[in-house]
Amino acid sequence: MMGVFHCFSLHDCFHRPKVRFTVRDRDALGVDPLVREVPRAAPYFFLSYAHTPRHDLNDPYDPDQWVEKLFNDLCRHVMVLTGLPRGVRPGFMDRELHPGSVWPDRLAEALATCRVFVPLYSRRYFESEQCGKEWMAFAQRILHHRARGSEKVETIVPALWVPVPVDELPEVSRSIQFVDPDLGARYAEHGFYGIMKLRQFRSAYDLAVYNLARRIVEVGDRANLSPMAPADYESLESAFGAGDHTRPNGHRLRVTVVAPDITDLPKGRGPYHYGHNSQEWNPYRPKLGRPLAEHTADIVRSMGHRPEVGSLAEHAEQITDDGAPTCPGLLLMDAWAATSPAFKESLRALDDAHCPWISVMVPWNQDDHETTQATPVLRDSLHSVLPRKLEEGRIAPRAAAHGIPTLDQFTKQVPEIARSAIAHYLRHATAHPPEGRPSIERPRLQGPMSPFDGNDAEASP
User: Fold this and answer.
1) Are residues 290 and 177 in the same domain?
2) Sheet bearing 45-48, strands edge to edge
3) Could you tell me if residue 409 is inside a domain?
4) Are residues 231 and 326 in the same domain?
5) Rounded to an integer, what distance in angstroms lies between the CA atom of residue 159 and that of residue 167?
6) What total of structural domains would you count in the chain?
7) Distance between CA atoms of 321 and 324, rounded to whole angstroms?
8) 216 with 80: CB under 8 angstroms?
9) Residue range(s) defining the domain that contains residue 346
10) Is residue 217 within a helix (H) or strand (E), and if so which, with residue range?
């Protein structure tokens, strides 16, 4: 017998027991399998911070005790400002996880169910792969929320532990307001660490921590971010990039959409998945509630890179040039476009140019009956215009070029395919050594030197 599904808001879930239903119930009712029920004790906010190592292993001083004090003060304020019932944790902070240790289930659970993510900014924070993965795990919930057509939500509330120069911030953090004037001028100048350590700034600390708690509650009450199944730590990328801190802004990544619009559809294709231009193409509709290009751009941003979205016509000159690449790229290819004369010439030019830094992704919605029925014709058309690109690269890029059946698989594959494109770009791009530094010839070993060669002084023993 089919189970009963009770709809309730994220706010309600803090006051109700878990609602459980079977996989069969999910499928019958159209429930997204990634979305899950919220545990009653889900934390209101998640404090993400970088552990500070002891400068002396014999020193009993704990450098993270001040972060714990900030966390406890925030929890006290949030508890009062929200009226959360007894047993519900206002916040989550991990005091035990250090670099190289195993991600505990409770950390993954907290990231999957909390309302607000609070990253504690410092230089050490953005150098931490662990912190980058925590950010990415929470960002996946935002991506999934937006994919379902929901409005954009503001659920990341940064706080300054120590000030960080803007030009050292990774791209993913630059679009988020991180200096709130309500927290005070002393806070903006010194960060929480500075105003906590100096007694003369005690009132500045009280003001900043209270207003940060207010901000967390305002965001948490307004946002309705769906909980998800806990993320798999091993599969996560750091949101701050691959650890190259000399380039905090990540890579520019060109996203090219190859799809017709509703005014020029191929024979046998209906307008349901298309819009007024190629960038409005949505092959996974209705599961994806917005254009695929927007969804892809958000994934690229969550990786710490800068997407540049355009049509094939807009990017044709750049992506068909087999000279030194200017940036890596993703080609989002509608299989139906391969049957249209409007695209064939440019696609063949791309295939003729040896550009392995451009990876092809072909959505092949398994629920799209028109595409399913036309599979033989579409496959032949794709192979006729992109024979080399479809077989280029390793297993993952080739699989993506041959068809991605679901939105979930597409979302998971974008980071991997983007990394492949970036790796090829770095291998083929022109190197630009820093200006002003003289070129030093590689040293060569020529054999042992006599102690008297070119030197009349007595050799040292």
Assistant:
1) no
2) 91-92, 45-48, 116-121, 159-160
3) yes
4) no
5) 17
6) 2
7) 8
8) no
9) 252-428
10) helix 202-222
**pLDDT of residue 451 exceeding 80:** no
* pLDDT given at position 192: 96
Domain assignment of residue 242, yes or no: no
Residue 72 token pair: 């406890």
* Residue 449 domain-assigned (yes or no): no
Q: Classify residue 64: in a domain, yes or no.
A: yes
Residues 6+ apart with CB under 8 A from 148: 32, 226, 287, 288, 289
Residue 242 confidence class, pLDDT cut points 50, 70, 90: low
Q: Give burial (CB, 10 Å; 0-12/13-18/19+) of 141.
A: buried
DSSP assignment letter at 309: E
Instruction: Say how far apart CA 164 and CA 178 lie, in whole Å.
Output: 10
Residue 389: CB atoms within 10 Å:
23
355-359-360 Cα angle (round to 5): 115
Q: Are residues 259 and 302 in the same domain?
A: yes
Q: Are residues 276 and 127 in the same domain?
A: no
CATH assignment at residue 217 = 3.40.50.10140
User: What are the start-end ranges of the E strands in 128-237?
Assistant: 159-160
CATH number at residue 389: 3.40.50
DSSP letter at 404 equals B
- CA-wise closest residue to 416 among 237, 284, 244, 257: 237
Query: What whole-number distance in Å separates Cα of residue 265 and Cα of residue 273?
Result: 11
Closest CA relative to residue 179, chosen from 162, 159, 204, 193: 159
What's the pLDDT score for residue 404? 95
Percent of the chain with pLDDT over 70: 79
Q: Which helix (H) or strand (E) holds 279?
A: none
And the tokens for 404?
Answer: 């991605």
One domain for residues 292 and 210:
no
Cβ neighbours of residue 227 closer than 8 Å, sequence gap 6 or more: 10, 13, 35, 36, 37, 38, 42, 112, 113, 141
For residues 325 and 415, state if they share a domain. yes
Q: Do 194 and 282 sit in the same domain of this protein?
A: no
